[in-house]
Amino acid sequence: MARFLLIHGAMHGAWCWHKVVPLLEAHGHEAVAIDLPSHGDDPTAPEGVTISDYVARAVEHLEPQTVLVGHSLGGLTITLAAAARPDLAGALVYLCAFVPPPGVAASSYRRDAVTDELVAAQEGHRDRGVTTPVLDRAGPVFYSGCSAEDVAFALPRLSPQPVAIMQEVLDFDLPDIPRHYIRCLEDRTVKPSYQRAMTEGWPEGTVHDMQSGHSPFFSDPDGLVRILDAIADT
């Protein structure tokens, strides 16, 4: 059985995995969902938080052969955490996530990767160095296909997103470990076209498709866990 470390995306927290953790455990896996600095229940102020802070938090929870699962912006964190501790990372799973190339900042490709709907669902605060969700627009973008109960659970828990995460140039050497990508074909946040482009040429059996919006951990947790369980068996 596998040990999964679940890393949330922008503005989210460990809370977004609350359906997935018990399902993975029911399959006999260990599943750990964490709050990155300034998100969820973590008290860190978002101003000044860097990608190094995110990575340090993830590395704290690595053990040998950990499967890192990164949702959306969490793709940056899992990549850098694996590069920092290749001796502990067993595999990387990108869930409708950014797959960062080395030597550039995510801001250089963000507008090609995300939808106009997402841009309209965020508000920038340059004086604080954060973006915040526009709540009356964020629901359909983040949670298309999710129940009204899931949307009501999630929206009040969204947190400010430090913009420095997107602006830092990421220098790393990716370790030679298995990589998987779960594409969400009805995503209204990260363009499905970007997800297809990111996975072009990946080995057979490493790309998995879901008929889902951006948050299958809410809309189809059973389907998501079936894929993660299959990945654990490879």
UniProtKB/TrEMBL annotation:
<dbReference type="InterPro" id="IPR000073">
    <property type="entry name" value="AB_hydrolase_1"/>
</dbReference>
<protein>
    <submittedName>
        <fullName>Pimeloyl-ACP methyl ester carboxylesterase</fullName>
    </submittedName>
</protein>
<dbReference type="InterPro" id="IPR029058">
    <property type="entry name" value="AB_hydrolase_fold"/>
</dbReference>
<dbReference type="GO" id="GO:0080031">
    <property type="term" value="F:methyl salicylate esterase activity"/>
</dbReference>
<feature type="domain" description="AB hydrolase-1">
    <location>
        <begin position="4"/>
        <end position="226"/>
    </location>
</feature>
<dbReference type="Pfam" id="PF12697">
    <property type="entry name" value="Abhydrolase_6"/>
</dbReference>
<dbReference type="GO" id="GO:0080032">
    <property type="term" value="F:methyl jasmonate esterase activity"/>
</dbReference>
<dbReference type="InterPro" id="IPR045889">
    <property type="entry name" value="MES/HNL"/>
</dbReference>
<dbReference type="GO" id="GO:0009696">
    <property type="term" value="P:salicylic acid metabolic process"/>
</dbReference>
<dbReference type="GO" id="GO:0009694">
    <property type="term" value="P:jasmonic acid metabolic process"/>
</dbReference>
<dbReference type="GO" id="GO:0080030">
    <property type="term" value="F:methyl indole-3-acetate esterase activity"/>
</dbReference>
